[in-house]
Amino acid sequence: MKSNKKSSQIRKKKSELPFRLNLIFIIVVILLVTLIGRLAYLQIFNGSKYVADVDRTDTTVETSNVQRGEIYDSTGKVLVGNQSHQAIQYTKGVNVLSSTLRSTADRLSQYLKVSTATLSTQDEADYYLAKSSNLTKVENSIKNHSEYGTKALYNLAVEKVKKTVNLSKTEQNAAKIFSLMNGAYELSTVYLKESGVSNKEVAEIGEHLSELPGVKVGTSWSRDYPQGNSIKSIAGTVSSAKVGLPSDEVNILLAQGYSRNDSVGQSYLEKEYDSILKGTKSQTRVEVSGNSTVKKEVKQYAGKKGDNLVLSINAAFQQKIQQYTRSAVTSAGGESTGGYAVVMNPNTGAVIALAGVDRNTSTGKVTDNALGTINEPIVMGSVVKGAMVSGALMDGVISPTNSTMTDQPIKLAGTSSKASWFNKTGSANMRLTASTALEVSSNSYMMQLAMKEAGFNYSSGTSLLGMKSSIFTKMRGYFEQFGLGTYTGIDIPGESSGYKGPSGESNIGKALDLSFGNYDAYTTIQIAQYISTIANGGYRIAPHVVSQIRGTNSKGGLGTVEETIQPKILNYIDDTAAEKKVVTKGLYEVVHGTNTYKTGGSLASISPGISAKTGTAETTTNGKTTVTLSLASYAPSNDPKVVVAVAMPGLGESAETNNIELAKKIYSAYWKMVQSTSTLKNPTKATTASNKTATN
Fold first, then answer.
1. φ and ψ at 277, to 5 degrees?
2. Is 89 helix (H, G, I), strand (E, B) or coil?
3. Which range, 28-32, 304-308, 400-404, 551-555, is most confident?
4. 66, 99, 623, 639: least surrounded by Cβ within 10 Å?
5. Residues 6+ away with beta carbon under 8 Å from 581
6. What residue ranges carry the coiled-coil annotation (predicted)?
7. For residues 465 and 508, is the Cβ–Cβ distance under 8 A?
């Protein structure tokens, strides 16, 4: 019995085995079919979506601005620094919906107050429609709304809301925050409030950061001026992150790697050297998953603060010269329109001071305008006669050994006579060499040079109609070799090339005025470059106010020198040493000569001794007869180290020494504040130096 029972059990198990195998096979087949179906779904129907999700998971770089480089004076004083501020920032995620942005803005507005002064009706409408229920309601109210595409329908909704929107103060605050957030690019960081953030705002926002995706408490910087705001006219300005890139340059700057909300130098040094001052942005590697959430952030590069500029300008000296110039103009009164002074190293082009003020002739109000030295063309008068003599020597109409002519009134048919200041009637006719003509500032001599250069034979009473109008081009060509009437190349944007009066046969008489500086207009920096070219032996060097580019050390101060600005020679005056000596001798004798009519004798008290050319131009200001007093000078005469150029337009006819008195103060301050006379070669001989040729 037991054997039969056991056999029956074995037969039963054998009969169940195929069934179990079939069941397992069926289950496996079902699983395979399910797997294949799922793969088909993933790869065929949603493959592109998941590929995009994977791509979005790849590294994306988020950048943030760094502290801007600072500007120092020649002694290491900070002229333009950075003031840090607590700031609230926002980094926009990937594919963030408008409704999500509005929700974040609404929550943040409970703790943060921003200015709504620039909130537009477009901003208000976008904020209002970011709420889904509002958008649906407005779109449904538009007639035949189903006939429009998504974008067109939204634009119609915006226009409708603009006419009716009436946000509360609280909503306006949230709307402005929403606008700033909405304007950010994906994974770019913008300031929601970059200054004036209170400690309470920081604390409350910090407590709720988990509810405010993308919002951060950070730092912003603004420019400050420890030595006073007067340097701003030279340094220029920087746009705020709120303003962003200038609209007229936005495409160019975007192509250079800027972001729309970047701060950027807007004018002068800040603009000219922006690529150096702006620094290098920090870079953070951000991994974003397909559902738009940030998976990981890794700081790849901490960024580098902008490099610093060291100027050739001495801040204390600059302030002193500005003070002197303001005082000279204020005391001048009358129709004075301002005053300008440039102090420069003639051998390197380094600008040590740029001082200038404008004066409102109606109110008498005087305002600082140091950049008037580079952008205010002025009819300067006789200061240009050194260039006129040099041009005549190079043209060959006179020579160092044959330059004598008689100073006499120039009488031409159909016009009143033109004469030198000391010989209006012809009672003081005298024989002059080119050097003596400079000493006494002879207008007659310069006019005769112009006629000789034009190939015109002058005799009293003749007409100038036969004189070639090409003389304008010839004289101006020689003047430009010295920097008169052309760009000096200074490293500050916005300089003027001066003003050239009309030429041609109908204005041929003006060629004579041009010869002695009473026609074309030049800037004070051009006068400084011109006299520097004479002082250094014939090299026209571009003026510059930046002397070095330096990094930042571990303590935040000036670091290692990265670049030293070298003198930039623009051209060389190709005259002989003997021809150069004619001019330098004349400029020396303007101050130290023996002729009764020398024009700069009162400058002889300056020590070390200087060489100079004074200038007086006859002008008209507000319908009144006025004069411009100018001066071009260098010191010491035997080894020039510094030039001083001064221009004071719109003075009364009785003014005689305003330019000279200002120059005296400038030289006195220079030797006390900038360079000691102990550094000079034979400084005691400088006051008695004879007519030596200035060389490098």
1. -75, -30
2. strand
3. 400-404
4. 623
5. 400, 691, 693
6. none
7. yes
- Dig out the tokens for 573 from the structure: 């005056």
Question: Angle between the 443-453 and 385-395 helix axes, to the nearest 10 degrees?
Answer: 30
User: Of 688, 373, 679, which Cα lies nearest the Cα of 528?
Assistant: 373
The interaxial angle of helices 385-395 and 577-592, nearest 10 deg, is 150
The CA-atom distances, in angstroms, between 214 and each of 268, 392, 428 are 36, 73, 86
- Can you give the length of the chain in residues? 696
Are residues 114 and 177 in contact, defined by beta-carbon separation less than 8 angstroms?
yes
3-class SS of residue 210? helix
- Per DSSP, the three-state class of 517 is coil
Question: Structure tokens of 691?
Answer: 């007519």
Tell me what the mean pLDDT of segment 91-101 comes to: 87
- Identify the band that residue 685 occupies on the pLDDT scale cut at 50, 70 and 90: very low
Tell which residue, 234, 471, 517, has the closest CA to residue 377: 517
Burial class (CB in 10 A: 0-12, 13-18, 19+), 402: exposed
Residue with structure tokens 């603060």? Answer: 305
Share of the chain above pLDDT 70, in %: 84
Q: How many helices (H) and strands (E) does the chain have?
A: 22, 20
Q: Which helix (H) or strand (E) holds 343?
A: strand 338-344
Say yes or no to pLDDT of 294 above 70: no
What is the full DSSP assignment across 264-328? -B-SHHHHHTHHHHS-B-EEEEEEE-TTS-EEEEEEEE--BPPPEEEES--HHHHHHHHHHHHHH
Catalytic site positions? 382
- pLDDT surpassing 70 at residue 286: no
Distance CA 305, CA 561 (A): 15
> d(Cα 550, Cα 311) in Å, to the nearest integer?
11
The 10s digit of each residue's pLDDT in 201-220 is 999 999 999 899 989 898 88
Helix axes 121-129, 98-108, angle to 10 degrees: 110
Question: Does residue 669 register a pLDDT over 90?
Answer: yes
For 448-555, list the strands marked E by DSSP.
Answer: 539-541, 546-552
Alpha-carbon distance 190 to 169, whole Å? 23
Helices 443-453 and 471-481: angle between axes, nearest 10 degrees:
110
Could you give the CA distance from residue 292 to residue 583 in angstroms, rounded to a whole number?
A: 77
Q: Which helix (H) or strand (E) holds 435?
A: helix 434-440
Q: The tokens of 224 are what?
A: 């400050």
Per-residue pLDDT tens for 317-329? 999 999 999 999 9
Q: Which amino acid is at 217?
A: V
Q: What is the DSSP letter of 90?
A: E
Distances (CA, A) of 90 to 105, 244, 672: 11, 16, 53
- Structural tokens at position 590: 């303007």
Contact 284, 275 (CB under 8 A): no
CA distances from residue 372 to 369, 486, 541 in whole angstroms, order as listed:
5, 16, 20
Question: Per-residue pLDDT for 241 more than 80?
Answer: no
Neighbours of 123 (CB within 10 A): 21
Q: How far apart are CA 471 and CA 478, in angstroms?
A: 11
How far does Cα 331 stand from its chain's mean position?
32
CB count in 10 Å sphere of residue 142: 15
Work out the angle at residue 75's Cα, subtended by the Cα atoms of residues 221 and 309, and round it to the nearest 5 degrees.
45
Q: pTM for the complete prediction?
A: 0.81
The number of C-alpha atoms within 13 Å of 549 and in the hemisphere containing its C-beta is: 16
Of the candidates 614, 632, 633, 624, the one whose C-alpha atom is nearest the C-alpha of residue 651 is: 624
The token pair that represents 225 in the structure block: 């001026």
CB atoms within 10 A of CB 405: 17
pLDDT given for residue 165 in this prediction: 87
